[in-house]
Amino acid sequence: MTRIKRKTLAALLLVVLMAAAAIAINLTTVGSASAIPNTDVPQITVLTHGLGGNAAHWSSTNGTGTAFAQDNDSLLQKLSTKAGGANLYRAATSGGNSPSYTLYADYGNTTATINSVSKHIIIVFESGSAGASNAVVYSEFRHMLNSVIARVQSLAGRAPKVNLIGHSRGGITNLLYALDYPENVHSMISLGTPFFGSDAAVSFGELVFGSSAGLTDINNASLYNSYYQRWVSGYESKYKNINSIAIGGDSAESSMPLRSACGNRRLATS
Fold first, then answer.
1. 102-128 residue pLDDT tens
2. What is the phi/psi pair of residue 229, to 5°?
3. N vs C: which end of the chain shows fewer Cβ within 10 Å?
């Protein structure tokens, strides 16, 4: 990602936090089954990068550079503060359709295991196949998140809910998860996600990202319309309780009208 995009993400930080407040995103802990009777309280927040992305898109030194590093002005730090402190992990995935993943603690390269649910958990997803098709990246994401959820459930005695925050194609990855596992998802926030394709990707995509299966999928009308139809057709029976908001979008059409229990919400357009 370019410095311009990082600065754009930084500028959206305040909007994201406002969006979080608007849809009542919760950044709390599971504790124990007896301590918190509300089974809808989310324990995990996952941040999902876009096409060709990596963990550094969410936090890097002073908002620049390509290394994942602590930045006190980053969205990660703001979310951690809002949660009253959080355990941060980077989930590096690989394998595509035969996925595996490794958790790293905080901003370093020390492998980690989730052993406590006393704090909110923030997971920064980092695909090893970031330019691959939507299906391949989703395969890695699904495997990682379902494994994390199972681990937290084993510690807490109850299944956690998750908040999903996605930038660009990352919003599509999150949507695919919500379509398959709505019972796990408390909220979705999408930043500049091309739910209905991207005019910019048509004009400049190969120049920026090179030719890739992921770029092809972004502008595959049959594919993105299939996602939309699943959401609309299953909304009343499956998805209406997912708090969701789409901020911006790169298509000549509007961003996907992600509906939630508190109504359709779009805070900004691009």
1. 999 999 999 999 999 989 999 999 999
2. -65, -35
3. C
Q: How many DSSP H helices and E strands does the chain contain?
A: 7, 7
pTM comes to: 0.84
Q: Give the three-class secondary structure for 102.
A: strand
Rounded CA separation 9/11 (Å): 5
Q: Which helix (H) or strand (E) element contains residue 171? A: helix 169-180
Core vs surface per residue 226-259: b (16+ CB within 10 A) or e: ebeebbeeeeeebbeebbbbbbbbbbeeebbebb
The 10 Å Cβ neighbour count of residue 11 is 9
Half-sphere exposure of 238 (CA within 13 A, CB side): 14
Structure tokens at 256: 């996907």
**Partners of 190 in the β-ladder:** 166, 246
CB of 242 closer than 8 Å to CB of 189 = no
What digits encode the pLDDT tens for the residues 251-270? 434 445 454 333 333 333 33
Q: Supply 162's token pair.
A: 């998750």
Q: Which residues are registered as beta bridge partners of 46? A: 123, 164
Q: What are the Cα distances from residue 171, in Å, to 111, 155, 168, 227, 246?
A: 27, 29, 6, 12, 9
131 within 8 A of 44, measured Cβ to Cβ = no
The full set of domains in the chain, from first to last, is: 3-247 (3.40.50)
Rounded to whole angstroms, the Cα distance separating 73 from 156 reads 31
Element at 245 (helix H, strand E): strand 243-247
